[in-house]
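Case study B.
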Amino acid sequence: MPTVVACFKWVVDEAYIRRSAGGALDFSSVDYKIGEYDRNAIEEAVRLRDAGGGGSVIGVTLGPPESAKGVKDALSRGMDQAIFISDASFKDLEPSQTAAILAEIIRARIPQFDLVTCGEGSSDLYAQQVGPRLAELLSIPCVCFVQKLALEGGKLRAERRVEDGVEVVEAPLPALVTVLPDINTPRIPGVKDTLMAGKKPATIVKREELSGSFEGSLKTAAMTASSMERTGEKLAADAAGIARFVDSLRKSGVIQ
Amino acid sequence: MAGIWIVAETREQALELLGTGSLLAPDMGATLTAVVSKGSASPEECISRGADEVLMLAELAPGEPFGAHLPVIEKEARAASPDVILFSATARGKETAARLAARRGAGLCSACTAISFDKASNAVVMERIAYGGAATQKLASSARPVLITVPPRSFEPAGALDGRQGKTRELPAPPPSAVKIVERKPKEKVAKDITEARVIVCAGRGFDKKEDLALARQLADALGGELGATRPLTEEVHWLPEDLCIGLSGIQVKPELYVGLGVSGQVQHMTGVRGAKIVCAVNRDENAPIFALSDFGIVGNLYEVVPKIIEELKK
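Model:
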């Protein structure tokens, strides 16, 4: 009956980021979401709990107070309880800071666990560092980019995808894994799940309750909008449109 | 004296990372050290391509993963305290770099696409992609060491120079790792490398079933190009091999022509084609984001439109 810690992040939905005239990022109409890959991390934790015939899944996240919405969203995805470290300063943290905060809270509040699951990267920065950094800070084995996972007899067996194929690995528990999107299909919470989520325990931890200083070491000097926009001429699917499409291809010189 | 380290598993990585390191070394007044696996670039080759020192990683016992080298690399890095440590942003490189950064309490710029040294602020300045490709993040580090991972084929490999001298040292075998490889499954079928293709026809979720991809192939053939795919096709339904997955988490392509068929145009995917000269699309949803990111496109059912395009191309 495993205890699994699932880490997740409440992030800006990048589909709603606009580019303002000066090339700055426009977040004015953005929505937020649980990171895409973190949904797989939550689902895998829940799946392993259920496969293990019990146990529990504890979600851990951190962010500014607004991220409380994400805690409820995550709880509707099958986990048993959540810990949310909330502080207005927890915006735009570096992966090293995020990992250090997660490590302190896991050590302090979850003394016994079998596995930590993380997504392969966050949907916003996608630095892919928090998982392996957290494993080091917790001094536990780490297996990244896992596409298949099972727990058995105090160890994990995982298929890890690398450039030249797949490595099937084993590691003693407790351990940390980062998971790939195709490890599972995350559930879409229903109305009942959302209602139940409100009744599950969510612990809010304040910055003052932590002892670390969590200094960063990199400085974000600029964050500018990428310019990927093109002329975007839309043609109709009729004979004239198709003729113009092929003509445009020929004129551009990319085909003979 | 300042130092730049590169850590490489393969020859290709070693050459590219030496090339990357050499972009910083003159401005930083730094020496280059290559930490390389046996069987990648030879010490002589590393030296001829810019390394001042080569540290040879010990041969790993069967079942030991690349990450097993970490304690040895950490110990050496602690002693020599290099300013910059470069890894390739491969699965093993990314994991090892992040773990080393945590052990050294250091910053790490993941998937760095541009790099320079600013003498005035004594800072390493790096760029990377964020928000799924919607933004470019510029990072600066005056703290040392700073770790950097570089996506393969982002920088020019170092060229060979005559008459260079350098030292070589063998590193000790690492202690056994907690993680053991019990089986290796090499890639069964390596798909054609489309990173250098001149024309790419990319299939997206607008296709109803696997057999229908024949239509995309026909268009690719008519245009003298190759077939690519979006992530859902390679990762969710597995209709095409993952090597053909274009986007932030797949391959980056820079063809003369990219044609997206039934591709919605999510930013993570479109980031992979930003180097394309011409981008065009066929999609039935006129509000699909791909239209704004295309030079031109047809709003319509690809099953009807694509055969007509092929027909028109024959004229």
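The domain at 3-209 of chain A is CATH 3.40.50.620 (Rossmann fold). The remaining cases will be described in the next quarterly update.
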